Amino acid sequence: MNQKDSVLKHFFRVNERFADLINGTLYQGKQIVNFSELEEVDTELIEKTKDKNTANRRRDLIKQCRKDETIYVLYGTEFQSTVDQMMPVRIMEYDALTYLKMHEMHKKIHPVVTVCLYTGEKAWDKPVSLHEMMEIPEEMKGIVQDYRINVIDAKEQEPLVYRNESVKEFFELVHDVHQLNRKELEAKLEERKLTSPEAVECAAIVTDCRELNKLIVSDKEGNRMCQNFKNIIKEIKDEGHAEGMVEVIRRMNNLGISIELIALSVAMNMTEVQSILEEL
Fold first, then answer.
1. pLDDT tier at 55 (50, 70, 90 boundaries)?
2. Which of 19, 61, 84, 114 is packed most tightly, with the most Cβ within 10 A?
3. Taking 70 as the threshold, does the pLDDT of residue 138 lie above it?
4. Entry pTM
5. Number of domains the chain is built from
6. 170 found inside a domain
7. Residue 64: phi, psi to the nearest 5?
8. Which of 160, 191, 217 is the last residue of a domain?
9. Cα–Cα distance measured from residue 242 to residue 252, given in angstroms and rounded to the nearest whole number
10. Cα(50)–Cα(59) distance, rounded to whole angstroms?
């Protein structure tokens, strides 16, 4: 998983945000999924290869939704920062392996719905179904099975369909970065009241926007640490890394987070952080 996808995974792993993402993208804002009904599911999938060995496939994020104590659907998300010609086949494979895994574990399968959240600058101009990938003879169109995927272009989303403030702000910022010129963006950011540092940081990383990075730094004079950084630190502690803060700094640096933000997040000065990174 690349650094942009990793940041999105941390951001949307929070049930309240994940539920809002699903409700906004799939149900046009209708409150179909309640965050309290969601449970995260292991993302690792197993595939048998031609030589009868197995290969791991890992989804970005998947949660099962329970209604009246019964699992009734699994929602998966794939985070994509580039346009991919093979996305229909990839998602079809992930969904099929998820069904197989469910059957092996429970002898019963539930619906799997996958959302591909695309955050790139370029318009998505590649297929969103198997049929669009093929040249199908006219006489076969009725018998060749199709597989259509849900590709959601973040910059084209209507923020008002989202109710979670962090999710709404994330989509607003991604839209502004991609749709406004630099002067328009700077003017709008000067007037913006920052309500969700986590959303701003996430949007800054996935769009590579320097203007958003400046906004984050100016808002962190009180040494507030954003939730996605807390998640990274918690994961490192759970994994039992003896290096402690050094490992935190290494992991943040690998995610493409600026030295300024790392220093603010770990309560160190930039010189100390730079020295640690040089030793690494």
1. low
2. 19
3. yes
4. 0.75
5. 2
6. no
7. -95, 145
8. 160
9. 17
10. 21
